[in-house]
């Protein structure tokens, strides 16, 4: 994973311009621009929402399908609800990444 | 302070002016591990003979959230009273055990987002703060090589169960440095079994000293006089040592006024504990009975 420059979030697609859990972001990774979903954050979280030691992103394509096949890091359960709310009938389906998660906390 | 003391019904304290007043200062509701052991040692021989020190005062370490915030801005006697009543009601519903910073806990909450509608998290308690119904604690664990912290409200109605897996204290009153320590110091298996202490034994103090990762750190740990860190000097440069010396505040431990502002006076504490002591004691006794019954039934189910 750590080859060359570390990946960097260069844009957050919300009005506040600060990435919160479940937000869609643009990531600069290996000289490319990719879309991703924030699945774990270092910043202080609400009560009962886990706070991670690193910021974690799952890369997705425009339809919401994850680019990889597995997620090695635990996923907060609250993402189930957040991603369901963000998914609309005709738009991208973000809940697909929950299917490849290995563990929930 | 002195006026309040003269008015208070406990006349004993007036007689032993200075020394006991200084003791009052140390009746902090912020439990420091080293200090508490000292206080307990002092108190036991004294307390057994005349018993003039209120025995309920030992509860300030077991139930620190019953004491209000010492800041006069946030004091309101009616609100505090109502909050205490609510806390006792909640405690009668769910067993909130005695635990300290450094204790390993398993917390089960009902979680509408989880598949089984419950969510269990195991971790070491690294911080405990807040008073009254706002009391909260933070658990930390390393799962799949990823450090995870979860903050819980102690009186959250969604909490189903709090289980103490290993009851112990650590050398410091906050373990936030575990975030910068090597991951093996806060890795606990999710299916950890509870360790049962013999009845009536004091809470053990775990004197393990953790090793920090190389810098950068989240905080300037070298300035905080931590006892639970072994290799802090390895990572320091000459510049950091000089600045640590410059930033030291050795006079603060003699600052009686500062101590006073941080603590709840003994008269107020006696009032609070007098209010909740009986109910807490009853709850303890009934829980003990329940647990005895439970241990009695457990082998039967195993056999069957």
TrEMBL record, chain A:
CDD domains according to UniProt: Ribosomal_uL14 (cd00337)
Recorded family membership: Belongs to the universal ribosomal protein uL14 family.
One Pfam family, short name: Ribosomal_L14
BP GO annotations: translation
Principal location class: mitochondrion
Organism field: Danaus plexippus plexippus
The entry's keywords: Mitochondrion, Ribonucleoprotein, Ribosomal protein, Transit peptide
Family matches, as SUPFAM superfamilies: Ribosomal protein L14
Cellular-component GO terms for this entry: mitochondrion; ribonucleoprotein complex; ribosome
GO terms of molecular function: structural constituent of ribosome
Transmembrane intervals: none
Lineage summary: Eukaryota, Metazoa, Ecdysozoa, Arthropoda, Hexapoda
Intracellular or extracellular location(s): Mitochondrion
Protein name: Large ribosomal subunit protein uL14m
From TrEMBL, chain B:
Top-level lineage group: Eukaryota
Gene3D superfamilies: 2.30.30.790
Subcellular location: Mitochondrion
Major location category of this protein: mitochondrion
A Pfam family assignment: Ribosomal_L19
Signal peptide positions (record): none
UniProt GO BP: translation
Keywords of this entry: Mitochondrion, Ribonucleoprotein, Ribosomal protein, Transit peptide
Molecular function as annotated in GO: structural constituent of ribosome
One CC-aspect GO term: mitochondrial large ribosomal subunit
Similarity comment text for this entry: Belongs to the bacterial ribosomal protein bL19 family.
Protein name: Large ribosomal subunit protein bL19m
Organism: Danaus plexippus plexippus
Higher taxonomy: Eukaryota, Metazoa, Ecdysozoa, Arthropoda, Hexapoda
């Amino acid at each position: 994973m750590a080859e060359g420059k570390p990946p960097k979030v260069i844009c957050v697609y919300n009005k506040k311009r600060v990435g919160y859990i479940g937000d869609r972001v643009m990531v600069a990774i290996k000289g490319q621009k990719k879309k991703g979903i924030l699945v774990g954050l270092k910043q202080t979280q609400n009560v009962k929402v886990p706070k991670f030691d690193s910021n974690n992103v799952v890369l997705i394509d425009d339809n919401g399908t994850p680019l990889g096949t597995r997620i090695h890091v635990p996923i907060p359960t609250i993402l189930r609800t957040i991603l369901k709310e963000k998914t609309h009938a005709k738009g991208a389906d973000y809940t697909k990444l929950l299917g490849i998660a290995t563990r929930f906390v | 302070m002195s006026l309040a003391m003269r008015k208070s019904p406990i006349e004993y304290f007036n007689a032993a002016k200075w020394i006991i007043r200084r003791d009052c200062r140390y009746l902090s509701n912020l439990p420091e591990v080293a200090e508490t052991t000292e206080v307990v040692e002092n108190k036991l021989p004294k307390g057994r003979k005349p018993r003039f020190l209120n025995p309920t005062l030992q509860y300030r370490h077991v139930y620190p959230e019953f004491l209000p915030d010492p800041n006069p801005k946030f004091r309101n006697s009616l609100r505090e009273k109502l909050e205490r009543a609510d806390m006792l009601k909640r405690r009668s519903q769910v067993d909130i055990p005695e635990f300290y910073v450094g204790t390993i806990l398993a917390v089960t909450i009902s979680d509408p987002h989880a598949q089984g509608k419950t969510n269990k998290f195991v971790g070491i308690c690294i911080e405990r703060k807040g008073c009254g119904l706002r009391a909260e604690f933070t658990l930390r664990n390393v799962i799949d090589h990823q450090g995870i912290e979860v903050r819980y409200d102690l009186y959250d109605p969604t909490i189903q169960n709090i289980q103490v897996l290993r009851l112990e204290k650590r050398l410091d009153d906050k373990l936030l440095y575990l975030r910068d320590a090597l991951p093996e110091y806060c890795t606990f298996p999710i299916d950890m079994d509870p360790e049962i202490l013999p009845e009536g034994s004091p809470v053990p103090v775990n004197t393990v000293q953790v090793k920090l990762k190389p810098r950068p750190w989240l905080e300037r740990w070298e300035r905080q006089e931590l006892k639970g860190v072994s290799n802090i000097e390895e990572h320091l440069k000459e510049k950091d040592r000089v600045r640590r010396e410059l930033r030291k505040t050795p006079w603060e431990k003699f600052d009686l006024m500062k101590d006073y502002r941080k603590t709840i006076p003994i008269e107020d504490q006696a009032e609070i504990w007098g209010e909740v002591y009986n109910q807490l004691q009853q709850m303890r006794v009934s829980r003990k009975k329940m647990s005895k019954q439970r241990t009695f039934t457990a082998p039967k189910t195993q056999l069957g």
